[in-house]
Every structure is written in C-alpha cells, then in structure tokens.
Amino acid sequence: MVTIKETLNNACEELFLPGNSCCAGCGLEIALRWAMKALGPKTALVTPACCLNVVIGLWPKTAPNFPFINMAFAAGASAATGIDAAFKAKSFRFPDQDWDKITTLVFAGDGGTTDIGLQALSGAAERNSDILYACYDNEAYMNTGIQRSSSTPHSAITTTTPFGKERFKKNLPRIMEAHEIPYVATCSVSEPLDLYEKFKKAKNIKGCRYIHILAPCPPGWGYAAEDTVGMARSAIKSGFWILYEVENGIKKISKPSRKYADPSKRLPLIEYLSKQKRFRSTTEKQIITLQERIDKRWKVLLSEIDTQEK
User: Fold this and answer.
1) Is the pLDDT of residue 37 over 70?
2) Does the pLDDT value for residue 204 go beyond 60?
3) CA distance 88 to 102
4) Which of 43, 187, 282, 283 has its CA 20 to 30 A from that of 306?
C-alpha cells in the first residue's frame, strides 16, 4: 500500500508540464499527470494517434519531461513491445546502466485501444510483453470530431450517431482480463490516489499490464469544464463506472466503489446522464436499459469475487 506521505511527496514532481494545449477541464491531462507521478522519470511513453499526439505542443517546447514517441494509430502496443525489447538488449550489454528499470508505457485513447489498436494490444497481451498499457477513455474519437467508438455508451450522441448510439459500450477491461495477464485495473480521474496506487503497483509487476481510466471530455460530453472531477465521480456514485483490479486472477473492488455494490447507495443514473448534452435525447426506456446493464455488470462482478473468496 502506498502511503499518503509518499503520494504527497511525489505529487510535487511534475513530468507532464504546463504549456500543453489540452482543453480546459481535460480528463486526459489529469490522468497522465498522476500516472507519471507514480511511474517517475524512468518512463518511455508511446502514444498512437489521439488527443495526446497534438496537445503536447511542438518541439522544442513540448510538455512531456520524459521520452515521448508518437506512433501510428494501430501500432501503439507493437511499438512499445519493440522499445522494451531494445531496453532489455541494452541492459544485457550495459548491466550497470539500469536500462532494465525503464517502464515502457502506452497511453492511448479509446479509439486507439478498443478499436484500431486492439489487435496489437491483444497480441502484446498474448505474448505477455513487459509493457504497461493505459487507455484514457473519453468514450469517443474526440480529437477528430467526436465520432462514436466502441467505447461510446448506449444512447450517447456523437457526430456519427446523431440520434444516439444503438450498441453498448465494449467492456475492454473484461477482454484484457480474459488474456490472463498479470494485472488489469480500472481508474477514474476523480480518484487520483486510487489511480496513483494502481500505476505504482503496475510499475513493479513484470509482464503485460492494462489500466483503463475514465477521462471525461467537456466539449465531447457537453458539460462545463470545471465539472470534470465531479462528472467522473458521479459516474462512480451511480455505478456506471466500477473501480476494481485483477492481480494474477484475483479480483477486488477498489475502495471508492465498494459501498456502491449496494444499489440503494447509488446515485440515480438520471442525475449522471442529465448533466451531459450527449444524453439529451436519451429516453426513459433507454435509461431503464442502461440501468439494467449496470445492475447486470455489478451482479457478475460480485459473483466472481464471492467465488474467489470461497
């Protein structure tokens, strides 16, 4: 367990610097800042096509204070696998230079993870490549005009689903769990200590690790920029987003989500949806359908935890 004192000490160090061109209230910026506080400067980051490619600024005044590699949309996990192999080769040749202590990180949006980059990610997971893959999930292709992705929720309006998306959100953490990799976790930008602890834990695990982060997007979701943290927290309180982790097959619900295992303690779903313009056309029937989906996910998750405890 990471202590609060350690977290506060590391919180003073900024590796993703001011001067970037993130939108006001960007969930991506919060997620990356706290991830890098946990991982530290010995981190090489690969990012496929997404908002992160463009918000870092132009050399020589870019925001990342660490090695940063822009990569093709489909190749994030593949590139990271190769980079990690290069570090290990360097470590073999120069054992006194700590090349093997560098964390190879992929930080990608949901489009480059759940859709275009899924094949490379699945391949890296099957090989158990020694990389850490993080998806900041803003639930659409925000950088190119707010088009729907497979991570976009049911009934949400995007520029390619003007009447609301018919299909449901792809459960990618579940897919990654099925690969039987050493570590899978979900996070939210509203819970920085939980996010920090999970990245800190993942840093010290060998093999393929996957972290999925809820990262709200003010212009894409349609809410005021100052409400990002509150929006992400409402997702947790309503049960829409569940924080949990799976370490070597053992699944645990994370502390910020535990009390919401009891449906009576959850925020009514409508209070979460009504704050976002993307759900402005959502009908009562669709809300009921979404609620049933949420209840089902909780039921499955809790049954799996009960089975493991027995």
Assistant:
1) yes
2) yes
3) 9
4) 187
> In the predicted model, what is the mean pLDDT of residues 240-266?
97
Domains and CATH numbers, the chain: 4-309 (3.40.50.970)
Residues 168 and 293: their CA atoms lie apart, in Å, by: 9
Assign 3-class secondary structure to 194-237. HHHHHHHHHHCCCCCEEEEEECCCHHHHCCCHHHHHHHHHHHHH
| 251 membership: H or E segment, kind and range | strand 250-253
β-strand pairing of 183-188 with 132-137: unpaired
Encoding tokens for residue 273? Answer: 């949806």
- Please name every residue paired with 44 in a beta bridge, in sequence order, or none if there are none: 104
pTM for this model (two decimals): 0.94
How, if at all, do strands 43-48 and 103-109 pair? parallel
What is the rounded CA–CA span in Å between residue 71 and residue 87?
A: 18
Nearest to 180 by CA among 88, 81, 114, 249: 249
What is the reported pLDDT for 100? 87
H-run or E-run covering 108: strand 103-109
Token pair belonging to 269: 């779903």
Nearest CA-CA partner of 108 in 31, 50, 186: 50
Pick the range with the lowest mean pLDDT from 28-37, 61-70, 140-149: 61-70
- pLDDT tens-digit profile of 82-121? 999 999 999 888 988 888 899 999 999 999 999 999 999 9
